């Protein structure tokens, strides 16, 4: 059975904005500072997720932020987790990440997903329609083609981009993405940090149907997980109420990052509590010992080749401390 020390450990960040007192500038600067700390702590990669028209999230211009993070660090891999491909022309994505790969050779990842990462009105403002998600497999193939070496008769070339072979990762929360990643011989990243329902089924589909490719000989399954580590279980559970409240505001219709509370049960109905707990059931929260046990159980269930961790807290220092404790667990 795989143990935490045996696999890469990575970070996912949404550049969260604190409701009522935080600013996008603070969120972006914290995103860069967290990347520096992640490199110092020894994490493998640092990914940034694309979302639009959300007052709680500052990572809309994902490729721009990836470049800023890469320039502020030296070794850690940096990328998207992910670029929501239906929002963009595949050619532009190839140019953007080809540019990043040219500036930071060997350090740039391109994680891609088919969800809009926004609402229908904003999707329209992005000049993309519903057909984009349906064409996702073709869009993936198109991006991949632009990043390959050019062919003699190729009239449209991504410059920079061609020949960079930026590593592609398919993101998903269902068996659809798993099947596509398997067919194309690409790594698969499952978003169990917010949609864990089909985790086991998706990994089974991916591994059973994987076809080796030039870029990947065997399946590479990466699992996303929320982790809150603190010095005590009680402290970690209190810090975790910020993420619970965030998901509560999501189901109520307006995503917000709110401060932690002592008694979360005073803030939601039993039905709301059940809905939030269902979305967050793969979260691992507690002291270092509790987190070690929880992540060990997750690895046993999934056989993940890598974990990508999302830690959202109200206080930035708590986020840094959580990642520090987790890194210490891995090296122990």
From TrEMBL:
Stretches of the chain forming a coiled coil according to its record: none
InterPro entries assigned: Bact_Lucif_Oxidored (IPR050766), CmoO-like (IPR019949), Luciferase-like_dom (IPR011251), Luciferase-like_sf (IPR036661)
Domain Luciferase-like: 15-305
Pfam annotation, one family: Bac_luciferase
Superkingdom as given in the UniProt entry: Bacteria
Gene3D superfamilies: Luciferase-like domain (3.20.20.30)
Protein family according to the UniProt entry: To bacterial alkanal monooxygenase alpha and beta chains.
Protein's UniProt name: LLM class flavin-dependent oxidoreductase
Organism of origin: Streptomyces koelreuteriae
């Amino acid at each position: 059975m795989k143990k935490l020390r045996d696999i890469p450990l990575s970070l996912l960040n949404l550049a969260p904005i604190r409701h009522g007192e935080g600013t996008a500038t603070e969120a972006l600067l914290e995103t860069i500072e967290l990347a520096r700390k992640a490199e110092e702590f020894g994490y493998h990669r640092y990914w940034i997720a694309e979302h639009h028209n959300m007052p709680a999230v500052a990572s809309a211009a994902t490729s721009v932020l990836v470049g800023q993070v890469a320039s502020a660090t030296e070794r850690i891999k940096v990328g998207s987790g992910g670029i929501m491909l239906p929002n963009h022309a595949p050619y532009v994505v190839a140019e953007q990440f080809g540019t990043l790969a040219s500036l930071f050779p060997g350090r740039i990842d391109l994680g891609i997903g088919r969800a809009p990462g926004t609402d229908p009105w904003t999707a329209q403002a992005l000049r993309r329609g519903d057909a984009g998600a349906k064409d996702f497999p073709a869009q993936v193939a198109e991006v991949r083609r632009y990043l390959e070496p050019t062919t003699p008769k190729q009239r449209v070339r991504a410059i920079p981009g061609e020949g960079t072979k930026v590593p592609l990762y398919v993101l998903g929360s269902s068996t659809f993405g798993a099947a596509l990643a398997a067919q194309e011989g690409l790594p698969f990243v499952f978003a169990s940090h917010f949609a864990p329902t089909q985790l086991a089924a998706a990994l089974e589909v991916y591994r059973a149907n994987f076809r080796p490719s030039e870029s990947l000989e065997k399946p590479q399954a990466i699992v996303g997980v929320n982790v809150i580590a603190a010095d005590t279980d009680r402290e970690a559970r209190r810090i975790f109420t910020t993420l619970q409240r965030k998901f509560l505001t999501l189901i109520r219709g307006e995503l917000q990052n709110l401060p932690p509370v002592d008694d979360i049960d005073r803030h939601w109905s039993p039905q709301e509590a059940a809905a939030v707990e269902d979305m967050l059931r793969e979260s691992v929260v507690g002291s270092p010992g509790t987190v070690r046990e929880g992540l060990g159980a997750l690895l046993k269930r999934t056989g993940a080749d890598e974990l990508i961790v999302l830690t959202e807290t109200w206080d930035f220092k708590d986020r840094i401390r959580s990642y520090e404790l987790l890194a210490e667990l891995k090296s122990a």
